[in-house]
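Quick question, first post here. What does this chain look like in 3D?
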Amino acid sequence: MPITISARKKVRQDKKRREINLKSLNLLKRVLKKARKKPSLANVQEAGSVIDRVAKKRLIHKNKASRLKSQLAKKVISQKSLKKTKK
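> Answer (accepted):
Ran it through. Tokens below.
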């Protein structure tokens, strides 16, 4: 258990920050799952926005954010090419 007043305050701050960070990460997971399942342009744009916000808060690394966005963009492109070939 923390003994000093500042250590107690730090524990409270950490708890608050953890809750906020977990909300952001859970939102990221939901949006990624949705974009991967149905890779429409709107879903991918929404996911890209959330990815950027989470990376800006440093909850994920900027290179991971870039990689995720790239993977989603490839899915949209492949989805469009599949539609063209089916016609």
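The chain has a mean pLDDT of 93.
Residues 5-37 form the longest helix (33 residues).
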